[in-house]
Structures are given as structure tokens and as C-alpha cells.
Amino acid sequence: MIRDITLGQYYPGNSYVHKLDPRVKIMATLLYIVSLFVVDDFLGFAVAFVGLAVVIAVSKVPLKFILRGLKPVFLIISFTFIINMFMIKGEVLVSLGFLTITREGLRTAVFMAVRLVLLIIGSSLLTLTTKPISLTDGIEALLSPFKKIGLPAHELAMMMTIALRFIPTLLEETDKIMKAQQARGADFESGNIIRRAKALVPILVPLFISAFRIAQDLAMAMEARCYGGDIKRTRMNGMKLRSGDFVASAIFIVFIGLIILERIML
């Protein structure tokens, strides 16, 4: 299950989505996430789903690879669904002793589960179609106007990108540690949830040690290459908006407009 997490991974490709300017993709992702919390009916979620499906098709990232990233958060989605279904009051549909399922609760539970699924897939597409260095440059460019008030745009962009980039690395380290523990007789799969959680405690110490080692190696490598933050830093490939970026931005503006219009009309 650890290897199923796709957040932070980059899927190599040469699609139209891969070639888009990272600034366009970052802003589109943020606006898409906001739009998911704006819609509150089946039609709005249908529009959001169709838009996401089109982007996935154009990106040429295998759907199976994208859906694999939902496995690790399936328990969270299920828990959210159950909590909303039983805790919201309204017209009772089913009564199970002290637990009741209401029409409003069921509707909210379905919407919340769909919202989380679309949010996770939409966020994953950003990292799957954008190289880490391009993502750093895009975030820095979007934060650069705030430099006037003392915001360290480059440092923040670098930290965010490194955090995303090293999610797969740390997950791989966790998988190695778990396999080493299992080879020594550790059991992570039997027993109830509490017992499984306790079995994971011995993994934390070597994982933290490994994380600090990776961080130290990265810091030494950056220092050996005379990395000095944003001081006199140049780029091999500068970012420049092309015609395809303007077309994608126009299409996305129309998409967001449809969601807002649907919300206003209904």
C-alpha cells in the first residue's frame, strides 16, 4: 500500500499537459480545488468530474496509475463518509437503534467522498505532469510579488518542492524498513487496528534516522554545488507563456465560469 501513494511522483511524458507552463498548472490546480468546495449538487460535481476526466485523457497518464493513489486514503474517505452519514440530522431513511441514516446525511456523505476523490486526483495530476525543478520555478514565480514585503519566495518554493519530491523517497525507505523488520519476524498485518498501529512504532526510529541522513546528504550536495538560495541565481530554461498556455488558461476560465454559473442558477 505504501508504494501506491502517487503524490509527489513525476510521470514522464510529452503530452500537452506536460508541456504547459508550471504557473498555469499551479493556478489551475488551486482554482480547481476551490471550485470543489463551491459546488454543492450533482450537476456541479458532474461538471468537475468531466473536466478532470478530459485533463487525465489529454495528459496520457494511465488511469490505473492515478487511481492507485487513492488506495492509501481509502480508510480516510470511508471514515469521512460514515461520520457524515450518521451524524447529520434530517429526514430519517433508516434507523439502526441509536444510529440513524438521514437523507441529508447520506447526501452530504456522498458529496464529501466525491469531493475528496476529485481533490486527491486533481492535486496528484500537478506533480505527475510537472518536473520538480519546474514546480519550484513556478511556485517561486507566483510568490515573487510578495518579496517586496520580505517573503522569502525562493526558499519557500524550494522547501515545498523538496517536501513533495521526497514523499516517494521516504515511502520507499519505509517499505525497505518494513521488509527488513518482517525478515526478522515482525508482523504488521495480523491483529486489530490498535495492534497494527503498535507494530508500526519500531519503524519510526529507523525512519527518522534515515530521513535525517537523506536531509544531510541533500544539504551537503547543495553546498558542494555552491547553492546559495536566490542570490545571483540563473536558470538554464526560463519560463515563458506560449500560445498553448493561453489556450489552456482560456479553457479553464470557461470551465470555472460554468461551475460558478451552475452554482448561481441553482
UniProtKB/TrEMBL annotation:
Subunit structure: Forms a stable energy-coupling factor (ECF) transporter complex composed of 2 membrane-embedded substrate-binding proteins (S component), 2 ATP-binding proteins (A component) and 2 transmembrane proteins (T component).
Subcellular location as annotated: Cell membrane
Organism: Lentihominibacter hominis
Entry-linked HAMAP family: EcfT
Keyword annotations: Cell membrane, Membrane, Transmembrane, Transmembrane helix, Transport
Function, as annotated: Transmembrane (T) component of an energy-coupling factor (ECF) ABC-transporter complex. Unlike classic ABC transporters this ECF transporter provides the energy necessary to transport a number of different substrates.
Membership in a protein family: Belongs to the energy-coupling factor EcfT family.
Single Gene Ontology MF annotation: transmembrane transporter activity
Listed name of the protein: Energy-coupling factor transporter transmembrane protein EcfT
Keyword Secreted: no
Chief localization: membrane
TM helices/strands, residue ranges: 30-58, 70-88, 108-128, 199-222, 243-261
Membrane-topology descriptor: Multi-pass membrane protein
One GO cellular component term: plasma membrane
